[in-house]
Structures are given as C-alpha cells and as structure tokens.
Amino acid sequence: MIKNNQKYLNGLHVVIDAVIITGSYILAWWLKFETPVGNVKPGDFYLPRETYFSAIPYIVVAYLIIYRFCRLYTAKRGSGPGGELLRITEANVFGAIGMTSVLFVIWQQHFSRSMIAMFVCLNITLTAIFRLSLREILMAARRKGYNMKHVLLVGYSKAAEQYIDRIRANPQWGYVIHAILDDVTERGTLYKGIKVVGRIDNLEIILPENKLDEIAITLPLSQYGRLEDIVAQCEKSGVHTKFIPDYNSIIPSRPYTEDLMGLPVINIRNVPLTRMSNRAFKRAMDIVGASVGLIISSPLLLLIAILVKTTSEGPVIFAQERIGRHNKPFRMYKFRSMRQQSEHAKQADWTVENDPRVTKVGKFIRRTSLDELPQLVNILKGDMSLVGPRPEQTKYVEEFREKIPRYMIKHQVRPGLTGWAQVNGYRGDTSIRKRIDYDLYYIENWTLGFDIRILFLTIFKGFINKNAY
Description:
The protein is of the alpha/beta class.
C-alpha cells in the first residue's frame, strides 16, 4: 500500500537536487579554470576559487525555491517526462537570468559568464538524467506490481468513465482501479474491464478492511445529495479521498477558489491575468521585449519595407480592425502582403493556396511570419501582448461566438503576437475549435515562465507557417 509516499519522494528530490546543483557548479568551475575547455589564457584575470565556491549555498537555496515555483516537486503520477524536461529547462533559465541579474546589480564583471552557461547546461543534463532514471525505476517497479495505488470508484457517471479512460491509457502512472459502487447502475455492468460490484452502502464493509489507497468519488449529478455522507465515511476510515466532479466541462482543469469568511467559492474560469500584479509583470515584459525586438529587427524591418514598396503598388503597412481585450476593436499592423484591392475585395474570405492576391514578397513574409513584425508597435501601444491568443477580424468574432462554445473567453486577455496554439501548429487555415482549446489552456495556466517558454518555442519552430497562403 502507498500512503504519503510523495512526501518522502519530494524530500529525496530536494536532497539529490541540492547535490546535483552543487556538483554541476563545481564541475563547471573545474571545466572552466582547470581544463583546456575553459580557454583560460596565461595572464587572464579571474576571481579566486574561494569567491566562486562561497556562492554555492546561495545558488542552491535559490535554485530549490525556483524548482518549487516551477512545479518540479509535484507528483509524477499523471504527468509526462516531456513536461518535466520543459520545467527543468525553464527553472534553469530563470536561475541563469537571476544569477546574471545579481552580478549586474552588484557590478561584478569578473565573475565568469561562460562558467554560468556551463553550469546551467550541466545542471539541466544531470537533473534530467536523474529525473528520467527515477521515472524508469518507478515504472519498472510498477510493472512488477510494486508502488501501485489501489483505487475504488464511488458512483457511475461520465466522470467515472473519463477517469477510467485516462488510467487505462497510462499504465505507467501506477493506478489500479478495482471496482465501482453505484446505487443506480445495475450490478455486473462493465466498463473497459471495471465492474459495478455493489451499492454505495457497501463502503461500510469495504473501508474497515483498509486494503485501498484511494477512494475516487465519481457520483453523477443526480446523486450529489449523498456526497457529504460519503466523504465523512471515507475520512473516518483514513483512506485518501478525491472528488472528480461530473461537470468538468464547466469547471476548468485548475479551478481558482476564493474563501469568503469560510465559504469556498469556485470561479468557473480561472484567469490569472485578472490580477493586477500579474498584469503589471506581463506588461513590463511586453514593453521591454517589444522595445528590444524593434531595435534588433530594425534593419530587417527596413529591408522588408523597401521590398514591399518596390515590388507592388500600395502602402507598406496594412492596418486591419481586430478585436482585442474586453472586446474592444483596434487597428492591427502588418506588412502588406497582397496587391492593392478594392473595398469589396478586402472583405473576401481568408486567403487560400496560390491565392492570386498575394504578391511574391508577400508569400515569403507570410510563410515566415515576418509580416507580423509591425505588431511590435501594437504591443508598445498596449493593444497587444508578446504572447496571447491571436486576434480575429470583427466579422469572424461575430460568427465564431455563436458556433464555438467558450470562444469569447479569449478576449479576457490581450491578444498576442504569438501564442500557445500557434507554437502547437494551429495557425492559418486550421481548426478554430482546437485553437480555442489551446488558447483557453494558456489563459487558465498563465505564468511568466509559460510566456518565456512560448517565446522560445516560437523562435525554434513558430516562425515558419505551413498553413499561411
């Protein structure tokens, strides 16, 4: 039986992470200053070893705090290795930014930045090896029947079926569902090998045997009157109890709750960016990022402007009305990629493959997303953000709001130059419903780290748009 194992596993993680951070730092120092890899030449000035090593305790503590904020100490059950690798990388990027920022503030110019880069690379690699190895060990143990969680479902509902679907599709999580208790569904009913074995009152017999690790309450809405009694009975036995609501199409995956003098209130939609502090941090990043982006890309902006102007008649910049935060319209800027059109032609539908309206230069800048660069000005103006759901034209917003459930929720935040849907391939002529699913996930799970991850993904795979015509 498994009870409270995660607490001990997290303690082991913290200790081993501290060892890995320390070892990576010392190894990076050795590579930099004691081997040819570091390229330290005779006569070069560098700080003494004691100065570097005196920073270790502070770096270890700071990194462990960052790891906690990046959710590296959450349960491994129900999460994949890809997500964990991304969180490890994200945490180390934050750590590197933090270290270089501190060195800038204290004006320590002799502390080796290349050594910090080596440390970050080593720490990501060693931490990833440890975490993935631990996953393999746990999975091997589960395949042999160890480290399993034994679960009983109370209530037959759509939520119960969805829970079973996910557990059966991910045996590496180590859950074993034994049976279902329900008062309405006929005894003997099977769903993917899981049988309804009796009524909910049978808990009085089952719980005292103490052979279960978890009770998952999956009651249908019609039986919620029994919820309080069932929870009280399960908690009296000491078995860990979880509640899987039968209205998960309404409640988000990470609901935001409030405490009104002891009364819990569940917000139907958790939007972290409704909080002023989060908006301030995101806006500051937008201003800095857009300013730096405009400065760095200014030669490219000038070149594209010249190409657009000299290869076809019309203005360089195309401004089109889009719908932004709080459903307010704004003028979104793009490099003009089409030939000069009549007002009627401008109202035509999306472009299609080999669209005759698109110029040769326009085809290239649309495919590479370079036509979007003028939106850095929209970001500075406050119409848009670096990261967020892509804005749509007014006519499409009116159409989609009637056809696609939850479509208008995207307008609770500023639209973005890039977004979670875009880096996952949903750009141009792709499924609007899928795009909205990704947009809502972003809105409900926003963090600055998530924004940085999306920006990195945009750099590596988000510029080339196969669906842009």
